[in-house]
Amino acid sequence: METLNFLAQGFDVALRPINLLVALFGAFVGTVVGLLPGLGPINGVAILLPLAFALGLPPETALILLAAVYLGCEYGGRISAILLNVPGDAAAIMTTLDGYPLARQGKAGIALSLSAMSSFIGSTIATIGVVLFAPILANWAVAFGPAEYFVLMVFAIACLGGMVGDKPVKTLLSALIGLGLATVGVDATTGVYRFTFDSVGLSDGIQFVIVVIGLFSVSEMLLMLEHTATGQQAVKASGRMLFNLKEFSFTWWSTVRSSLAGFVIGVLPGAGATIASAITYMSEKRMAGTGGRFGEGDLRGVAAPEAANNASACGSLIPMLTLGVPGSGTTAVMIGALTLYNITPGPLLFEQQPDVVWGLIASLFIGNVILLVMNIPLVGLFARMLTVPTWVLVPAITVVSVVGVYAVHSTTFDLVLMAALGVFGYLLRKMDFPMSSLILGFVLGELMESNLRRALSITNGDLGILWSSPITIGLWVLTAVMLALPGIRWMRARAKAKLAHA
Amino acid sequence: MYVRIFAAVWLLVCALLAVVAWGFQAPFSYDPVGPRAYPLLLLLLMAAAAVWLLVKPGEAEDLPISWSLARKVALFIGGLFAYALLFEPLGFVLSTALAGFGLGLLFNGRPLPSLLSGVLMGTLLYGLFDYLLDVPLPMGLLAILEN
Q: What is the ipTM of this complex?
């Protein structure tokens, strides 16, 4: 009952004209950023973050803007996946598998409208999940001390390694590099300068915006440079534009199942929308068995991953809001946004800033409706945006990124650092190191160190505190399970290979 | 192969940074951990991961380097650094017009449209950021026009 009151209060905030306007703008920009191949939610949020800050938006409005962009990207990614066979963002990779064949069969309109609907169902189910579970988790998380927090973050990093699967060591190294970047600057406890190499520009630490824009936007431009030669033609959205009841009921259970699974995967710290859509696509394909036409244009093949990636995006807000630990790369960026406002996400946020939390949650419901309404009739307009030539697009993104970085400190040093990080990120991405782990590590870095040191101060250096409470022990067990997963998968694959060989 | 090279370089970086980190000592502190232990722990873990990759780099394919692409990448990187360094001396409008033009050409734009889009971006975005959004941007050379 209390939750409903808070939710009503949230709707009060979210329905303010400025917040509605911002949600509308965010949804539109998000969809555009999502559908442009290469740009994902992290870029969208990172580019708009300095803008939101510069505009002097109040924190709840800024957060609503960023959340609308985030959701919009998850909607938009599917458009280029279906029409162009190029995923707009990583979470839409699975959507290309059936979406493009459907478009080639002249069913682009049906695939687009049905996937918009399943995106809507996915986010709505997940948002209800947020309403139900976030307050409970926040209440529970109040009992977290520094030791519990530290182990929770170890768990978050283990989730990355376990879930991303085929390259656990690279994922781990990425996260460690992120953690390491966070140690640059003055040590908050002792005032010692670390890894600043006597540079004034680094004494304050590396700014979050610079890391995100450098590693994501700049490296993305470099990757786009490689693909400029491949001028691919979009399939024209033709045929019937709206799905019918039969098609809707055909995909209904896949959508619901994938929404629930996506939500749970989103809540796990570290695992994001990309993993959610991959897992649900695979499991739907397995469930359909020979009866499905997965890979050749099965409607469930677009409904399931789209429901899952949207659900996971909403679900990942739970650990962000309740624990201050991001559930995905994009929520990591949003935590960065909150800290710019001097708001520390965590269990106390629900007590101290109910307007921010519940305004955001209510805006998710509203944003979803806006996105559904926007996405079905405007799909033609969005599809036309796929024809913006890269020679205009890339310079424009570069300029906006540079302004975003410059706005933080107004120094050239930051711009050079951004370019350098961009080159570094490009090299890492060429070698298949996941960037989202790096960002997660960077966001967790300072929290992780300060919690570890605070915990050890309590016991005067006795490490025993790290496994002294039921919560810490439970988290260590979960961490061990997550770390063991790649090993188990590897052993199973080897056993299978042996069997096939014999 | 590339992963192996990277792992080797990274191992070296870890060693150098560990030497630097060894010097992090607080004159006095009530903190039993101190500023040194955590970075050293991270470097140790990173080095372990790098050694792993050195031994087992995985199945990343080693594509032959395409020199025409490498030239483009180098041009982009050079252009970006030039943009960063010229941002303040030339000012936003001029440096952005140049960057828009250069990057446009790099992404296969034709010269005249690229030039036009660069100049438009420089002027329009300056108006947007400086007047509407209140983001202070450097005027650079064009500051003379103001007086």
A: 0.93
